[in-house]
Amino acid sequence: MNRAALWLLVVLFTVAGVGHFVRPRLFEAIVPTWLPNARLLVQISGLAELLGAIGLALPATRYAAGCGLIVLLVAVFPANVQMLLLARAAGASALWQTALWLRLPLQPVLVWLVWWTAIASKARVG
Question: Per-domain residue ranges for the chain?
Answer without folding.
Answer: 3-75+107-125
